[in-house]
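call fold(seq) -> tokens
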Amino acid sequence: MEKAQLGRVIEEVFFWLGESAPGDGLFGIFLCPLWSLEQVPLRCPPSRISVWLFRWLIVRIMLGAGLIKIRGDRCWRDLTCMDYHYETQPVPNPISYYLHRSPWWFHRFETLSNHFIELIAPFFTFLGRRMCMANGVLQVLFQVTLIVSGNLSFLNWLTIVPSVACFDDAALGFLFGSSEGGAKQAVSRIQSEEAAGRKPAPTRGMLARRALNVSLAVLIGYLSVPVVMNLISSKQPLAVSLKSVQRWCFRARSVLTLMTQLHCGRSMSSCVNQEPFSAGPVSSPPTTYPRLDWLMWFAAFQTYEQNEWVIHIAGRLLANDSSILSLIQHNPFEDREKPRWVRGEHFRYRFSDPGGANAALGKWWIRKRLGAYFPPVDLAGLRKYFQSRDWPHPDIY
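ret:
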């Protein structure tokens, strides 16, 4: 697969995985009253349309993710993907290290469970109250499991939000106090009056809000047509283009690390201080720096020309910029002269065997150098590079 094509596919993956964030925010607007500050305003209860939009959001997120997997790579069909997942995910944690060594049958169970939760459970949403709540429970537990085991945790937290819409007032009532005038009492009062047929007469504002909610439902329905067509199509574009990506992402952990090189004075000899910038030293446990590690992980599948931000970070490192150094667990330049050169190195990482010789030496990782990622650069050499992109030169930060 060409590197440029891989970059385009990765951008699509980002969009697909991140679509829950704008959906959560957009639909959340229509759950809130416009003027009242009451928790449960009598004349403006949450619209059922908004609740169902959240439910539809979790259905499409999970179905889309499941179909991409099952269509995108054979390992999801032969149930072997979890043999690689924990070791090759962008941000593993110490729990990932041990889960990776689970028995083969447990990995098969994990893969089957993934398919059930992503491909079957979403349909529970449309099968009545109890089945809808069952789907909500499964989705929340699934996301919590992914958060605990590493993965892309901030996306998993976002995905929990629409899952909560699978529960109704009765199911969520325990979260609210029963004090007089509280939210629980207000909801009970509104439900009692509706059951007795004593609904408040609609005002112009209420009618306008209903019209807005109906319009939103029509708009989302219209925009969902191509989504549904994509889901049911055997030529699901993202799934087809993802095949090669998954062979990279699930079968090998290619992690970009920055190697800092200090030139001592004017001599030709150099003091080399190896400080990985992404995955960490082999003796460091897997740690989670979600945003930066995630981006560095994907950048390792491309060239630095396709990820110019890496050179930008290198320049800021050369300038000993505190805002960039704060992203690194250990500052290799602390109490030292600023580095003259920084270079990028490309490594492949894999977990060491628990109880093995490397683990006995305190090594969580075993790594192999694949080659240079970008050549040694210095501040003077980066000046034209930064100017051509209208970036402030690092030495003025």
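The chain is about 55% helix and 10% strand.
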